[in-house]
Amino acid sequence: MSAHRIPLAGVIGAPVAHSRSPRLFAHWLETLGIEGHYAPLHVEPDDFEQVVRALPRMGFRGANVTLPHKIAALGIADQVSDRAARIGAANTLTFRDDGIHADNTDGHGFISNLRQSAPGWAAADGPAVVLGAGGAARAVLDALIEAGAPEIRLANRTRARAEALAEAFGPAIRVIDWAETAPALDGAATVVNTTSLGMQGADPFDLDLSALPASALATDIVYTPLDTPMLIAARDRGCRTVDGLGMLLHQAVPGFARWFGATPQVTEATRAAVLG
Ligand code: ATR
């Protein structure tokens, strides 16, 4: 890695053509006047480790990692952040002189988005209800616990997956039967959809939100469409809502800062640039 090279970074996935990260990074590089490039890198699982190990020699400072490589990214790292270890997956690799550092910034993106978009909200405000127990849920649970959520009611269609997460993340989590999700919204301060329900092309979101207090904050990991059925239903109850695009933008901040040496802001202009 020589210092005079133009800094490079990218997003590694398969597929990766749909990724919004190249637009996001191009916007920040331009806004901050930084000479650098960020590329979409389509890499199949069999090639993943070999490609990653070659990147530093080409001037790459690091890379974001998306499906299907997030677990493999943890496996090839020389150092792993505590939060990536707890989540069991990495989305941000940084190439250091002493090796590959793996981090997971999804939970950070989740919390930063809520703090910026819903001023006054705090995880400690009261119980959170989390729908879903996939990879996104792991990052959300970790972040909510770190941020001081007193209780997390975790509901997943396949109950065993929720129980496995409760085992991994400890006593703050109470597993709720999927059929009991609607009444479990009673008294919630925060509700988070991490399932694919309501996403374009996926199953419809049909959870009854009538027990959700108007004081609750509702947020969705899904951002296609931006205004999801869950957010619309929560607003009908009088709740504040935060869409999922901000999480994507905020999770990219730490990588950008490490690779390009300046901390970017998430603004309306950032959203507009990414939505293009
Ligand atoms: P990710 O890693 O992005 O979170 P995932 O691991 O495929 O994605 O998880 C998708 C989540 O959406 C899961 O919690 C899944 O529930 P199961 O664990 O029972 O599969 C949930 N999900 C998807 N379709 C659903 C449906 N029709 N009803 C209820 N939950 C659904």
UniProtKB/TrEMBL annotation:
Binding site for shikimate: 19-21, 66, 91, 106, 223, 251
InterPro entries in the record: Aminoacid_DH-like_N_sf, NAD(P)-bd_dom_sf, SDH_C, Shikimate_DH, Shikimate_DH-bd_N, Shikimate_DH_fam, Shikm_DH/Glu-tRNA_Rdtase
Stated name of the protein: Shikimate dehydrogenase (NADP(+))
Keywords per UniProt: Amino-acid biosynthesis, Aromatic amino acid biosynthesis, NADP, Oxidoreductase
Function: Involved in the biosynthesis of the chorismate, which leads to the biosynthesis of aromatic amino acids. Catalyzes the reversible NADPH linked reduction of 3-dehydroshikimate (DHSA) to yield shikimate (SA).
Species assigned in the record: Limimaricola hongkongensis DSM 17492
Pfam families in alphabetical order: SDH_C, Shikimate_DH, Shikimate_dh_N
Catalysed reactions, as listed in the record: shikimate + NADP(+) = 3-dehydroshikimate + NADPH + H(+)
HAMAP family per the UniProt record, alphabetical: Shikimate_DH_AroE
